[in-house]
Specification:
Layout lengths: L6 E6 L5 E6 L2 E6 L5 E4 L1 H12 L4 E2 H12 L5 H16 L3 E6 L1
Antiparallel strand pairs: 1-5, 1-6, 2-3, 3-4
Helix pairs in contact: 1-3, 2-3
Length: 102
């Protein structure tokens, strides 16, 4: 009998719609649901839009792979940690929700 480890998977929290605007190195996200405008770093904003564009829950490793392709970087421990921290921050903001899947 094989043991399956559950992996974190992510989706947009509630019925939210996001709009982004960027100026030079700043990126601002407007959240339709709350009416809030939040400044995010590039990585967090890209993660948010990857999750928002998905039709299903996305596993953390899939998000990391997508980010690595966009940034033309290897999937290494540094990138995994940066993505993990951004996911945590987006969850604290209430933008995304976490589930566990096989």
């Amino acid at each position: 009998m094989q043991s399956h480890e559950l992996q974190p998977a992510w989706c947009i929290s509630g019925d939210r719609s996001f709009h982004k605007k960027s100026w030079q190195s700043e990126l601002v996200i407007f959240d339709d649901a709350s009416g809030d405008t939040i400044r995010l770093d590039f990585l967090a904003a890209e993660i948010l839009f990857i999750i928002d564009a998905a039709d299903e829950l996305l596993k953390s490793d899939v998000i990391t792979s997508n980010i690595a392709r966009q940034l033309d970087e290897p999937v290494d421990e540094r990138l995994v940690n940066r993505v993990r921290q951004s996911l945590s921050n987006l969850k604290k903001l209430g933008f995304i929700a976490q589930s566990e899947i096989d």
